[in-house]
Description:
663 residues, 18-stranded antiparallel beta barrel
Amino acid sequence: MSLGRGLLAGAWGAVGALLLGLWTPTALAAGWAEVTPGLDAEALRAKLGPPSSRWKTRHGEVQRFVGKRAPEGARTLEITLEAQQVRRIQVQPVGWTQERLEREYGHACATPSESAPCWVRARGGLEYAKRGLTVRLKGRAVQSLVFIAPPAVSAPTVTSAAPPPSDPAPAPEQKPTVEAAVDPARPDTATPSSGETVASAEEPAPSSETPPAQESAALAEDPAWGEVSGFTPVTEDTSTPTPTSAPTETLGVKGLGLSGKLRVQSFFVPVSPAEGKTVGRQSVDLSLKSEVTFGAGHAAGTLVARRDFADSSRDRFDVDELYVTLKSDHLRLTAGRQLVTWGSATLTNPTDVLNPVDYRDVLRTEKRGAWMARAGLVLESFLAEVYYLPVPEAHLLPAFTGVAEDGTLQSSSPWVVGSVGGEPSPIPLRFQVRNESMGSPTPKNAQLAGRLAFSVAGTDVSLGQAYLIDHLPTLTSSVQVADPPTSADVTLTLSYRRQRVTTLDVERTFGGLRVAAEAALIHTLRTRPEEPEDRFLSYVLGGDYQTPEFLGDHQLRFFLEFAQTRGVGAPLRDDFVRRLRYPLERALWGRVEWQAGRRWTAMLTAATALNRYDVLVLPEVEFTFSDVLRARVGGAILRGDRGSFFGSYRDNSRVEGLLEASF
C-alpha cells in the first residue's frame, strides 16, 4: 500500500511539475544532451543510439560514446548503467570555459542558504550539490563534468564566491586512484576508458590547521566513482566549514528542464515534376521538450509544430511524447505517448514494430509516438517488459486520390507511381477505392506485446512477441461485372488486420567492432475468406567498425548490413502498399562516416538490391558552427529498372539542405 500511495503521489506531482516545466525558462535538470541520472536504458538508446564501445564493471555496464556517436558539444561521453538505469554521466566538453559553465548550470554560491543551484569550490574544480554535478577545471577551462543523482545529505561547505588568489601555492600532486576499465572482449586492455588522465587544476595550498580533506558528498555517494575513468576524485575544501541544510523540493521535484530545436529544411528536384505532383520542401519545424525529475521517477513531454510551404500534407501540430515513468528498486512503470525502439541494427530495423511511421517522404521517414502503458522488471542484466497499446494507429502513407480507367494510380504525391497491374481487360473498368477504419480504442482492439532482454557471455539478446493491428493496410479487390458485360466495377479495399510478430535481436561488441543481427517473423491473420494469407520473415545481419583517432581528431566509421525478406508458406505480395514494408527483398546496405574534428562530418549511405538493378545513394556533409547550431547539405540519387523500387522513383532524385538551432 505504501508503494502504491507513493507512486500515485509521484504521478500527481509529475503532472503538476511537467506543466510548470513547459514555461520554466532555465533548465534545472542535471544532465547532458537530454541524458540525466535515472534515465532508463531503453530511453538512453532511443536518444543516443548504440555506443562506440561498452564493458562491464562490478557496479554495472559502462557505455562510451566518441566521435560521431558522441552528442553535440562533447568529445567523449561515458555513461554507467546500474540495474538498466543511468547511474553516472561523465562528459569531456569541447571549448567550454568557466563562463559557459556558469551560464548553463549556475554561478558561485553567495551565501550558505542560497536556494538556486550554485557552485562551491572543491579541490580540483567546482561542485554543484543541488544538481549532482562536479566539474574538473584546468585554469578556467572545463576539462570534465560528472553527473550523478543528487544525494539526500547536507549541502556542501561554502568557502567563497571569490576567485582563488592570483599566485596560489602549488597543491601537492594528486595521482588518480582508479581501477583500469578493462574491455572483456580485449583482455590485454588495461587503460582508463577516458584514454588520458586529466591534468590537475591549480588550487590554493591547504592550511596546516585544516583537517584532512574529505571526499565530496556527491562523489562519496557514488560507488563507481574513480573506477570507470582516469579522472581524479574531487574533494571538498573544508578551510571554512559552514554547515547548511539541503534545498527544499517543491512537489517532490528534483529538476525541471526545457529544451527545443528549430529546424529549417529545403530541397528541390532537378527534374521537372510530373503534372499534378507536389515535389519539394520548404518547411520550418519547432519542437519543445519539457522534462521533470521527481522522487519516484521521471516525466517528459514533446510538442512538435511544422509548417511546410511546399507540401501542406506534412503540416503538424501535435504531441510526439507525453509520458510519466515511476520506479522502485526493480519495477518500472511508464504510461503515456512514447517512442520505443526494438532492434539492434543501424540502417534497417525489421523488429522495430510498435510505433507508427510517417512514410509520406520515403527518404526521410519519421517515427511517431504511440499511446501505451509499459511495465518492466529489472534484475541486474535481465529485463522483462510487457506493453499495452489501447489506441490503434496506422502508418502515414502517401495518399492517392483514385485510380484511372487504365489502372494508373492518381495522387499529388511523387511517391505514388505505377498502376494496379494485372492483365489488360477486354471491357472498360471503373475503379473505386474504399478505406476501412483501423478501429477505435476499445478493449477488442487492444494490442499487447512483451519482451525479454538479457546478457549471456557478453552478448546482448532480446526476444519479443507482439499481438498488434498491422500499421499497414492490406489491399484486396472485388469485381462486379455489368449485365450485359459491357463494363465492370472494381472495388479496391484497404483494411487493417491483426498480426502476430515474433522478434529476435542479438548484439555483441568487440572493442571498436560491433556485430548485430535481428529477425522478425510476421503473420498477418486472415479475417475474411477472400483475404490473402500474409506470412513472411525479415532479417538483418551486419555490424559496424570505428577506427581509432588519426590526424589528431579524425575518425572513420563503417557500416555494412545484409537484409532479406522471404515469404513463409506463400510468396511475397507485390502491390504498391506492401512494397513499403519490404522495398528490397534481398539487399546490401552500407555507410561510411568521416568525422573530421568536431566541426565537419561527411557521410555516404548506399543501398542496392542483389537480385536486380535498384540503387539508392545518399551523400551528406554536415558542419557544426557551435554547440547549438549546425548545417547540413546532401542529396539523394535513385536509379534502377523502371519496375524496381528505387528505379520507379528515379525522378525524385534531389538536392537538400538543413539548418538546425538547439536551445
